[in-house]
Amino acid sequence: MKIKLTFWKFVFLVLIAAGVYATVVRFTRGLGQTTNLSDQFPWGIWVGFDVLCGVMLAAGGFTLTAAVHIFNLKRLQPIVRPTVLTAFLGYLLVTVALMFDLGRPYRIWHPLIMRNPHSVMFEVAYCVMLYTTVLALEFSPIVLERFHFHKAVRIIHGAVIPLVICGVLLSTLHQSSLGSLYLIMPEKMHPFWYTPLLPVFFFISAIAVGLAMTIFESSLSSKYFGRQLELGILQELGRVLLVVLSVYGVLRFEDLLHRGALRKMVQPSYEMTLFWLELALALIVPLILLSQRKLRNSANGLYVAAVLVLLGFVANRLNVSVTSLESSAGLHYVPKWTEMAVTGAIIAAGFALFSLAVRYLPIFPTEVLSTVPSTSQPRVPVPVLDNAGN
Amino acid sequence: MSRALLYDATVCIGCKACEQACADQNKLPYSQAVANEDIQSEHKYTVVLTRSEHFMRRLCMNCLDPACASVCPVGALRKTATGPVIYDEGRCMGCRYCMAACPFSVPKYEWGKVLPRVRKCTMCPDRVAAGQQTACAEACPTGATKFGERDDLIAEARQRIHDNPEKYVNHIYGLTEVGGTSVLLLSSVPFEQFGYRAELPGDPLPMLTYRVLSRIPDIVPLGGVLLGGVWWITHRREEVSAAEGHKKNVRLRVVKGESREN
Q1: In whole angstroms, what separates CA B61 from the centre of its chain?
Q2: Between residues A194 and A381, which one has the greater pLDDT?
Q3: Is the pLDDT of residue B262 over 80?
Q4: Which of A270, A315, A334, B52 could be A278's S-S partner, Cβ–Cβ 3.0 to 4.6 Å?
Q5: What contacts A89, CB < 8 A, 6 or more positions away?
Q6: With contact defined as beta carbons under 8 Å apart, do A173 and A193 qualify?
Q7: Within A298-336, where are the H helices?
Q8: Average pLDDT, chain A
Q9: Which residues of A touch B223 (CB under 8 A)?
Q10: CB B74 to CB A120 under 8 A?
Q11: What interface predicted TM-score (ipTM) does this complex get?
């Protein structure tokens, strides 16, 4: 365990060092020196991964707060705090990443006063800004509690339902709008990924990823922070994930069918390879895994399925933002190492901030909430609610 | 009212006087080396392309309903009533959405600068506003690039094709592409040979995003009421069961637990 920790600390330091170097190059020499972007290919991984995937991976925040506070699924309560923490950190890091990508980052506030309501990016900018504020408020009781500001905590708790409703609405809007960003490029994008349904797909997949991210992060927390695994909760999330993925899969198939893109799926091409990679990771393998009751109810099965869903939809966002545009641009975009270094450092910072928060703030509930059902007897899930009452 | 440029490739002699005039007008360096560059860039807003003995100009099409202006989150790009699509560098935050969205891939970026701007032909807005023609049209020795009212230029282009049908591809490029552009092109060889997309839709591209965006004001109150309603129903159930007493509540939970087991 000790060796493992040192290893990860070493990885962390390397990533941060590389990131600091790339940051210096970025802000002293400009985007041309730091990235492989060009006039033909103006958006790379800082948009495709840092922003599109960053926002998507933070979708657990609205998914879970809606489940607990709106749909009243109280048994999910124990994992709300770590999920809100993940979401809040996610949006903060997206904002940091945006500062690297914008040519003039000190003007990031311009959309506040220079409005263009016809621009999808204007709408995304507003929603992300407002939702980050909502997340800060949803997260604030954890910090306030730590410093015993009980009156302030009570005020926030009183406003929690309107806050959650605002959060869900804002998330619905900008998660889908990140897909709408690409609606204006019909002639540039490959037919696998250009569809009028892009906003719908981005939204549904954000829910799937929000669930997968919650499973992933709970599993990691139980491994590295000595947390008891809330397997009963994760099994529940796994079942919902199965349904959401199925809905997404059916809709995706119908869309490809109606747009006549199905036959392209069997015509070998660069795009076809990456399309199948995305489908396999995001849909095919997770659906097979989650449809097996034994795997769906086991901690490892859920973990593997969740990781695949995360990778699959990261592939999807990169396919939409990079792969689908390469052939019309007439080039293959491969990020420069400094681009990857910035992204790597941002991810590393995310993990570090999460563990710092876990160490110093009351993120996990202190009381024991459920016994861990043994994996060999998956069909005895003890309802968490009843146990908590005992 | 709306001004435009008509470029007739069959009249062009490839002298590149338009390139020189454009560089002078926009205070860009111009030399033999720049003249030899055959792509638009942050220091070259218009290019005369040569394919065997055929010529073709590339410049900002100054669309009637431009995608770049529609996507710009801060309104740095704007279509003026007289025709030019202009750029306000004081607003631009450098997100490059205009570059990603432009169907002609026209806007260019100052990649080498720490504080980059977007660069493109803006159809000499100051000259046009003062009633003058664009620098390129004024410099053209053969009249291949002609400045005028868009409607007049369309009529003239039609007349030229009608008079010499064997000389032209029967198509005015920019008449209907993405809803029409303020630059109109005539050619004797297919436009695709010079990188002009043939399959562009006839509707303005901003419609594609606006169709979605315009629904937001409806979605917000609808979603708010829906979510509030769900919250009310789910929590009402709880209140009712609490009111009906602890004993029954326990029984309910047992029933629920059993049904989950099945």
Answers
A1: 9
A2: A194
A3: no
A4: A315
A5: A58, A350, A353, A354, A357
A6: no
A7: 299-318, 324-329
A8: 89
A9: 168-169, 172
A10: no
A11: 0.87
Give all domains of chain A, ordered by start, each with its CATH number: 37-333 (1.20.1630.10)
The alpha carbon dihedral of A328, A189, A186, B213 has a sign of: negative
Compare A227 and B137 and report the one with higher pLDDT.
B137
Q: What is the DSSP string of B146-205?
A: EEEEHHHHHHHHHHHHHH-TTTS-S--BTSSGGG-BSEEEE-SS-GGGGT--S---SS-T
Radius of gyration of chain B (CA): 28
The helix (run of H) or strand (run of E) holding residue B119 is strand B118-119
Has residue A371 got a pLDDT over 80?
no
B256 band by pLDDT with thresholds 50, 70 and 90: low
Distance CA A383, CA A370 (A): 8
Cβ-Cβ contacts under 8 Å, B261 against chain A: 379
Instruction: Give the number of other Cβ atoms within 10 Å of residue B220's Cβ.
Output: 15
* CATH number, domain B3-204, options 3.50.30.30, 3.40.50.620, 3.40.250.10, 3.30.70.20: 3.30.70.20
- Tell me whether B88 touches chain A (CB under 8 Å): no
What CA–CA distance (Å, rounded) separates B249 from B240? 10
CB atoms within 10 A of CB A366: 6
- The pLDDT of residue A364 is 82
Residue ranges of domains in chain B: 3-204, 215-261
Nearest to A39 among B94, B108, B220 (CB): B108
A121 contacts on B by Cβ (under 8 Å):
71-73, 95, 97
Buried b / exposed e over A157-168, threshold 16 CB at 10 Å, is: eeeebebbbbbb
Query: Sign (positive/negative) of CA torsion A149, A150, A151, A155?
Result: positive
Which residue is associated with the tokens 């436009």? B191
Which among A86, A57, A94, A49 has a CA at the least distance from the CA of A315?
A: A49
> Is residue A205 within 8 Å of residue A339, measured between CB atoms?
no
Asked if A173 contacts A123 with a C-beta cutoff of 8 angstroms, the reply is yes
- How far, CA to CA in Å, does A112 sit from each of A212, B40, B81, B104? 33, 33, 26, 29
Q: How far apart are CA B131 and CA A239, in angstroms?
A: 68
Closest-CA residue to A220 (of A120, A310, A334): A310
Whether pLDDT at A372 is above 80 = no
Closest CA to B98 of B148, B60, B149, B155: B60
Unique residue bearing structure tokens 């029984």 = B251
- Asked if B2 contacts B150 with a C-beta cutoff of 8 angstroms, the reply is yes
Chain centre to alpha carbon of residue B125:
18
Residue with tokens 């730590």, as numbered in its chain: A146
